[in-house]
Amino acid sequence: MIDQLRSSTSSARLRPVFFLALIVLVFVASFGVSTLLSSNAGQSQSAAAPAPSNGGGAARVNPPFRVSDFTLTSKTGEPMSLSDLRGKPVMLMFGYTHCADVCPLTLAHYRQVKDLLGDAGNDVNFLFISVDGTRDTPHIVNDYLARFDPSFFGMIGDPDTLDRISSEYGLVYSVDAPIDDHDHASGAADDHSHTQDDYSVEHSSPSFLIDRNGFLRTVFFFGADAETMADNLREVLGEDA
Fold first, then answer.
1. How many Å is the Cα radius of gyration of the chain?
2. What is the distance, to the nearest Å, from the Cα of residue 201 to the centroid of all Cα atoms in its chain?
3. For residue 55, what pLDDT band results from cuts at 50, 70 and 90?
4. 109-146 pLDDT per residue, tens
5. DSSP 112-166
6. Distance between CA atoms of 223 and 109, rounded to whole angstroms?
7. Backbone angles phi, psi at 134, to 5 degrees
8. Residue 31 predicted with pLDDT over 60
9. pTM flag (> 0.85)
10. Which of the two residues, 66 and 12, has the higher pLDDT score?
């Protein structure tokens, strides 16, 4: 499990051990891993915990739990809630458009998963949520997702909402934004200079399968193969509504 979590962050600057520890702490808090290790069957049913599935970088959430609803600005600039996507399974990821590797690779995987599903791919909502609300405007997110699939949904996260839902997804992110002290003192800090826009965002990077009724079913760690994602989606799609 620790090795999977180690591969699920796109950390370039934070010390890996420290960042990994944060992710582990959040997963322990949100999924109740201690109950998974308990021999008491009754306790094990009282909290959701990721349990290994058939490999491929996936972990089933057992038992599944309904995730909280939230509303953010969508890629169209209009408010959109997670519950607006009910009725179809959702593949959800957190990231940002300036991400150099993890985010584009994951979205390319989503495109592959949709192709593997054939016509059933249209019955899945693929959702990208930006953790970089400063740079990622609706227009930028819309153009970014169009490179992969125009049908993919996009949202721009705000810190308060992301903090509120972070424990349910094991979400950890950190914005490393350098500020030019001279410009800040002269009142030019709000002009979005090149210096201010040149920053990275460290973020955890699993994907999450939420079923048509809003229950978190499977966590896919970065590097999970597309066929594993497609198999899990086929299972959920085959269930009665």
1. 18
2. 14
3. low
4. 999 999 999 999 999 999 999 999 999 999 999 999 99
5. HHHHHHGGGGGGSEEEEEES-TTT--HHHHHHHHHTT-TT-EEEE--HHHHHHHH
6. 9
7. -70, -45
8. no
9. no
10. 66
123, 91 Cβ separation under 8 angstroms: no
Looking up residue 229, the CATH number of its domain turns out to be: 3.40.30.10
Mean pLDDT calculated for residue range 65-85: 98
Helix (H) or strand (E) holding 51: strand 49-52
Among the listed residues 12, 38, 223, 236, the one whose alpha carbon sits nearest the alpha carbon of residue 123: 236
Number of domains comprising the chain:
1
Report how far residue 9's alpha carbon sits from residue 11's, in angstroms, rounded to the nearest whole number.
5
Instruction: Provide φ and ψ at 58, rounded to 5°.
Output: -115, 150
The per-residue pLDDT for 139 is 97
Q: At what angle do helices 226-237 and 102-117 cross, to 10 degrees?
A: 50
Structural domain span for residue 215: 2-237
